[in-house]
Specification:
- The chain is an all-alpha fold.
- It has two domains: 230 residues, Hypothetical protein af1432 (Orthogonal Bundle); 145 residues, no CATH class.
- Helices cover 53% and strands 1% of the residues.
- Helix 3 packs antiparallel against helix 4, helix 9 crosses helix 13 and helix 14 crosses helix 16.
- The N and C termini lie far apart (58 Å).
- InterPro entries: dGTPase, dGTPase-like, HD/PDEase_dom, HD_domain, PHydrolase_assoc_dom.
- It comes from Streptomyces boncukensis.
- Keywords: Hydrolase.
- This is Deoxyguanosinetriphosphate triphosphohydrolase.
């Protein structure tokens, strides 16, 4: 049993409460909820680009397919999720799961709302493009960028009183130690992955290490706090379930194919390669079949109100199944007390992780690997590469005032490149295209 300490509620820069009665974690949640970085996620890709043709941007247009059997031009809603809607759904899942296990629900919600703040335009595709652009400055990683936003870039609090030139420095949202820790999915720098230095996943850039070391003081190396584990599983649950839901609603996935060969082999190959490394195809087949055998599983979808309600019920059933399994297994291992910080590890049964991995693979095969999306992704990578080249050639001209000032203060070529990448990563999909059109 473990409760939160005064150290957990400390901030990098101490500040008085504006209104007595709120907890430190309630204040953290409000700061993230009101941030510009969170609002921008409404215009950033989750799986498909917001407003892209054929994805609900102009329902009723001839080029937008309806559901299976619905025909072109139907009024059927295929509006896809964005990074913002995903973050809100992740937060709802995480808040309830965390509360059931004894976490402070506001703290878990902060982590869930913040976990994707650093993702650039065009989703993971944009992340790969910016990683190439920033190779000489330490690379780019969406999770490390999230920490940079929370602790440096998002305007909210400053050190110093500004009376002397250069005395003030942004400390971002100035969240508590526990909130920054909970929002950090990969608590290590580039090359420090516990499973091997070759992993592309990391959670902090070299020049953000001071605040990282502060909030990680006393934490076991490479180990995530319990709230971060709840956030991570909530993220997995939300996007695995909802990406399949979106695929069915948009007509990209025929659920009958989940019973057929060679489609099943393709799904299991993707699952074993990307989402459940080394898993036996027989285990993955059993995991998928367990889901297909449920009374609520949607074996067909035609876009009718009854079908929409059935699909929503299946979504709820899956989320409940995955969260309840984790709650029960964790309670069985650690008992009924409050589980917080480093007092426990989240336990997710192996079979449930495989069910989640199979759903991710289904969305991967039928939504993300569509040929039209691959053509679009190639074009998006060109947009970001050319935009970076144009901004670097003009800098500090062309940068927003916030980044223009940071560019002027940057010491060295790598630091200036990082500022340009910060600017690009802050853009929405549409604003990235607009700036590219203006500069290139």
């Amino acid at each position: 049993m473990h409760d939160y300490t005064a150290s957990d509620a400390e901030r990098w820069v101490p500040e008085p409460d504006k209104r007595p009665g709120r907890t430190a974690f309630q204040r953290d949640r409000a700061r993230v909820l009101h941030s510009a970085a969170l609002r921008r996620l409404a215009g950033k890709t989750q799986v498909v680009t917001p407003g892209a043709p054929g994805e609900g941007a102009a329902r009723g247009a001839p080029d937008i397919p309806g559901p299976p059997g619905g025909g072109p031009g139907s009024a059927w809603d295929a509006t896809p999720r964005t990074r913002l809607t995903h973050s809100l759904e992740c937060a709802q899942v995480g808040r309830e799961l965390g509360a059931a296990l004894g976490c402070d629900p506001d703290l878990v919600e902060v982590a869930c709302l913040a976990h994707d703040l650093g993702h650039p335009p065009f989703g993971h595709n944009g992340e790969r493009a910016l990683s190439e652009v920033a190779a000489s400055a330490g690379g780019f990683e969406g999770n490390a960028q999230s920490l940079r936003l929370l602790s440096r870039l998002e305007p909210k609090r400053f050190t110093g009183d500004g009376r002397q030139p250069g005395e003030q420095a942004s400390v971002g949202l100035n969240l508590t130690r526990a909130a920054l820790d909970a929002a950090t999915k990969y608590p290590w720098p580039r090359g420090g992955h516990p499973g091997g230095p070759g992993s592309p996943k990391f959670g902090v850039y070299a020049d953000d290490l001071p605040v990282f070391r502060w909030f990680r003081s006393g934490a076991p190396d490479g180990r995530r706090c319990f709230e971060a584990q709840v956030m991570d599983w909530s993220d997995d649950v939300a996007y695995s379930v909802h990406d399949v839901e979106d695929g069915l609603r948009a007509g990209h996935l025929d659920p009958l194919l989940l019973h057929a060969e060679p489609e099943r082999r393709d799904i299991f190959a993707v699952a074993a390669a990307r989402y459940a490394p080394g898993a036996d195809p027989r285990e993955l087949a059993a995991a998928l079949d367990r889901l297909l055998e449920q009374d609520w599983w949607p074996h067909g979808y035609d876009g009718t109100v009854r079908a929409q309600a059935g699909l929503k019920d299946a979504t709820s059933q899956l989320i409940g199944r995955f969260c309840l399994a984790a709650e029960e297994a964790t309670r069985a291992a650690y008992g009924p007390g409050r589980l917080t910080r480093y007092a426990a590890e989240l336990v997710v049964p192996h079979g449930v992780r495989l069910e989640c991995a199979v759903l991710k693979a289904v969305a991967d095969c039928y939504v993300m690997q569509r040929p039209d999306l691959e053509r679009l992704r190639a074009e998006q990578r060109v947009v970001l590469a050319e935009l970076a080249e144009a901004l670097l050639a003009r800098a500090p001209a062309g940068l927003d005032p916030q980044y223009r000032a940071l560019y002027a203060e940057a010491g060295g070529e790598a630091a200036r490149l990082r500022v340009v990448v910060d600017q690009i990563s802050s853009l929405t999909d549409a604003s990235a295209r607009a700036l590219h059109h203006a500069l290139v």
